Amino acid sequence: MAYLQSSSSFHLSLLAMETSDSPLQHNLFQESFRDAWTRLLESSTKFHVVTWGTLLLYLSSYYLSSLPGFIYQFIPAMKKYKIQQDKTETWEDQWKCFKMTFHHIFTVQIPMSLAVYFLVEYADLPCDWNSMPRWYSVIAQIFGCFLIEDTWEYFMHRLLHHRRLYQHLHKVHHAFKAPFSIQATYAGQAEILIFGTGFSLGMYIFCNHLFSVWLCTMARIVQNTHVHR
Description:
Layout lengths: L1 H17 L11 H14 L2 H27 L18 H32 L12 H26 L2 H8 L18 H18 L3 H18 L2
Keywords: Membrane, Transmembrane, Transmembrane helix
InterPro entries: Fatty_acid_hydroxylase (IPR006694), Sterol_Desaturase_Related (IPR050307)
Subcellular location: Membrane
């Protein structure tokens, strides 16, 4: 009961913030963005927009944010910033990693995109333009999601390093000597679901619109690939 009250109070406070005038309400891109968002919602069903839109957002964010780290290995000037100078990524390792992440699209990411749709339905999150949150509200929601997930990930990561769990759940993620961006999701399905639970909790507690869910997802993916460079 206390949890529901705190969650409701947070959403009410965000709603109060959003009723005020937005400093960006007359920006040059708002009309174009509004038209594009409206066409997106009108072009298909809510199920397709949320499910396939989430999957497309994940794939584009993940592979595009991993691309700079991949390119850096071919730029001599960037090698001096590499922390583990004595450890290099091999083509075999990178190809092996890519194949597993591609396999995860069908075994993990599509089911998780479906889960996002059910989360949106269960939490009754709006998708329409009129309910679009203000920019400062979105920033607050992203911060809240990061806070929840980072806390969850810290304790789960320590737990997965327990000798009884490491061999069965977490060892796969440490298969490579030198980390690289695309390795962020090189893990077993169980481990991905464990860490994904923390992110889902953050979205359920803080996000009040589909747009917020998508931005939180994109921000977390970019951050996750960045720390694995």
